[in-house]
Fold each of these.
Amino acid sequence: MAIKIRPLVQILGRILKLPVGEYLDPTTLGSGNPDGTKVLKGDGTWGSPGGMGYVPYIGATQNVDLGKNKISADAVEFNLVPTNAPAAGQIAYDGASGALSYLLNSSNVPSRIGQTMHAYVHNADSVNIQKGEAVYLFSASGNKASVKRAYNTTDATSAKTFGLAAEEIKISQNGMVICQGVIEGLNTGMYSAGDTLYLGPTAGTYTNVKPYAPNHLVYIGIVERANAGSGQIYVKTQNGYELDEIHDVDLITTPPVTGNVLTYNGTLWVPQAIPAGGVTDGDKGDITVSGSGTVWNIDASTIGITELSATGTASSTTFLRGDNTWATPSSSVPDGDKGDITVSGSGATWTIDNLAVTDAKINDVAWSKVTGEPTTLSGYGISDTKANFDVACSDGNFLYVGDVTQYTDELAQDAVGAMVDTSLVYDDLAPKLQRAALTGAITAGAGSNSTALGSFTKAQLDTAVSDGVPLFVGDVIGLTDGDKGDITVSSSGTVWNIDASTIGPTELSATGTPSATTFLRGDNTWAVPNNTNPEGWTTIVKSANQDVTNNATLQNDTDLQFSVVAGGRYMIEMDICWSGNNTTGGYSYVFGVSSGTIKGGGVVYTNSAVSTLLMNTSAGGAAAPSPRTSAVLNADIDYLMTMKICVNVIASANATFRYQFSNTTAGAGRTSRTWKGSILRYKNIN
């Protein structure tokens, strides 16, 4: 080895001065045998580089090739802001993930040390597996695990879900699958960050909708970034289990059949047929089972208000209605068919149904309204004078025959005389009827006082007169069809129909006074319906909307008012539905009294607060301390607000208690409204 030196050279800390053109013998620079494999060490000896423990190369401007040698150091420092990303076989710091990163197997799949776990697998599917598709372990090929696209409709294609394809893997080719960690560059635009992903029902897919049996539940991971092309998912697969895969469930020794239930035998859960009767006898809480499971009885005092499925609010003022709703009973009679009466017009019109009034129902109606005969004919027998008897049987109507024992010769002769010739007079003293022999229904010999029935058979007469019903003598006097006033006769006198629109309040036998405010009660009395409920409350429902516009003077509500008496103590509840079209206009309210004073206190519930209410109000005055105001939250007359008022008062005089309201601040177009349906309930508790 020859070293060409300059006249003055520093070597290993020593200054050597040599003539120009001279060469230095290396053996003079250090001990040992210098050759092409040796280097001059710092200790002045020639030796192999491996024995030095370091490569004396500082400030490199190009790659350092160590050949087959290794680096041994306490620590290796990487540039935290690398200029280039690592290529295959290189490691660099990844600032985005805070980890060292390298590319796998000459592919573009990065692996971050300590954060991701990949597997190099073989595609055994019949199609290319795309990046991001879910795969499951299928078998093995070429010393590598093989995979196919996973889906959740069978156990075989879901139970061994392995991860997501980290790159496209061609048919029968090898590629990377990420089993845990972040995969980037996916279309996750259909999801939201934070969505949980589950294996889907189509090969390779996943979904954010949790699947249920019979589909299999397999957890895939979490969406870290939702983006149509740059989305990323944190992958951590977790497979669900079949029932027979749970360690303390044995469905193998005795396979289950349809209808079996899972029971615990003290060690394991095993399938078993349902016991006879379904369940064992005994107390099951609210149910007592008996009869080997065939009889299930609800225990006494078990079903309460909370067990009922009814809608609405159960309270001391509501009752369970037939449509399964808790509601306050209406005090009015609803429209509809009520038997012989049909109610309409919201309870205002009561109409007797056609053919509803029978003979039995008009038994107490004045007889003159049916026959047009003198009212002195009573019952079914004749107990009047001959003159009245003559009138009764001379106009084609029927003859009333009383008790047979009361039908004397004298009466018969009077009746026959009137029918034949009214000019004939019967002489009671003779007694003798001066005329020719009679024939027909009544017979008598010429000049004879003895009469007899003629064309009637004994059976007909016995039936007609033995039970007190009238005897029809159409064969004698002739009962013709036609209009008889309130009655129309037809079918040769056999059908009698009451004319339509005939029976009115005056024809009914009810007591009391019929009027626009009274109704026919079940005890045959005209009476005003009671408008109170069993607790004694009287309810007033506002019948129409009422507005106050551009007026801050309190106005009487046209419906929500009632009469109080001197010394009367009243419980009052109000449910007010109100609104306003202007936030400045607002809504003010108070209570007024027409005379005397009222005083008392209570509470007001509004949309914004609960407050106490003290009253000491005189006639024409305002309530102390002052009218209440409610803020209009939305300048919209259809934006409904609610207010609950509960107050107890005492009145000093007979007067009218009134609810009053107005604008809080008057102004053009400012409207405050109390809505139809608002309710005032009160009762006197003296």
Note: Residues 1-7, 397-407, 472-478, 621-625 have pLDDT under 50 and may be disordered.
Amino acid sequence: MAMLTVSVLLVALMAGLSWKNGRDNAIAYDESSLSQRIDEAAEALLSTMKDAETGQRGYLLTGDEQYLDSYNSAVAQISSILGKLRDAAAARPHQADREKALEPAVLAKMSELAATVDLRRSQGLPPALRAVETDAGKRYMDDIRTQSAAMRDIAARRVAVFSAIAETSAGRLRIVSTAGSLILLGFLAISAVTVLRGLALREDLYHRATSDAELLSVTLSSIGDAVIATDTESRITFINPVGQDLTGWNEKDAIGMPMEQVFRIVNEATRAPVPSPAERAMQTGTIVGLANHTILITRQGKEIPIDDSGSPIRNPEGAVVGAILVFRDISERHRSDAQLKASNEQLQQFVTAAAHDLRAPLNSTSVYTELLARRLAGQIDAEREQILGYVQSGVRRILRLVDDLLAYAQATHFELEDDKQTPIENALNTVLENLRSEIERTAATITAEKLPVVAAHESHLVQLLQNLIGNALKYHGDIPPQVRVSCANTESEWVVSVSDNGVGIQPVYTQEIFKPFKRLHGDDRPGSGIGLATCQKIVAGYGGRIWVTSEPGKGSTFFFSLPYREGGATNRARA
């Protein structure tokens, strides 16, 4: 890389110097051409002026008109010569100024010559000689010679300067070109050696890659999961024995076939075709997994429940050149899940029936103790009233405990349909309606930000929010409760927060409070210690987390996260 950089810099330097040398030569040539034009025009002007002056003198001395031929010829040429000199000098301001100073002197000299000729022709020699003897013509001619010489001198000096610049530039170019060529020749020799070594290394790497490819093929053929690889056109390039068994296609028939023809998958419930994760992996450039309840239809028409994931295959430059699909038969897991689901449903039915059977005598006991308390009011002493109060309180606590245990047991069934989405706002509205009397009693203020749509059952969201907001209403301080519900999103999950201004929690208990029956405030606050355990069970059922940050005396903020499911990107856009 360093040699390439130096080579590029050398070539750029030589190119720059070549361009500069060419420009300097062009400037020197232009300057030489312009100076030559000025020099020739100035010389022609002096020569013509001398011819005019010679003709004038001959005519003055002899009176013979033939001597005026050179004079008349000079008069005819002066205007053209001045025009050439003016055009040549216009490109150089300092020369243009001298030309402007020269032109009046020329015109004055020509006028002086014309006046003496006219005097000789009309009045004879003496008046003409007297005009000549004033030396005005000599002064004009001296001025013309001085200005012309100055213009020619300036032009010559500029030619010398720019010629020296061009020569210096050419010398510099020769030095740099020679040195650069030697350096580039050295780099070329080094590059040749490097290329030869690279060719040898490539040959070695090719043999290694061939061995690695064979090893990879053997590995993929030996693993217990089905593997299918495709090219960028979604045509199969590899299928291992397990993949052949599950799809019902042998390797010979599958190679080159479109993925969707060999790997046919549908939704178990809707029977709608499911897009191949391999194709989506190539489109997104990320690992893509199947949603739940996906069925593979084999070549023979047999249906097999599977789960899988697709991943893009990239070349060393990072470009996607295909995809690999890994999938497995989960029929046994389906049967186990079905048995577990049936067992849970039986357990839930048992818990519901047991709760009903427990509630019936407890409700009767509660009613009778309430009636007994009313009838004996004022007829029994304080100790017996206190004992009766303990009985009523105990019955209420047992009833509350039965309800909370039932809610904890019913916090199940976290499976979702592929497109099942629930607005958190709907669940929050239900909670606020359920807690209306408690909100009014405590003069609480409940506020909420814009909340997203998430992959969860609404009943579970109601349980979550009702437990958290209900706790905020129960464990408030001396001022009315202020509860705020908000939400943020990360790369993989939604994080919902419920903050309050209540009594807060000691840091040592921030983990303990999520355990069943863990209460921090004794009997002075209602509760069974099951609510937060239920929240944790619900959140964990969706693959999320729940935690709390708190400062005693200032309030608490409970957080729970819900991972994105299929359509998560849409959810984020709607938040």
Note: The chain has four domains: 2-188, 223-329, 331-410, 415-575.
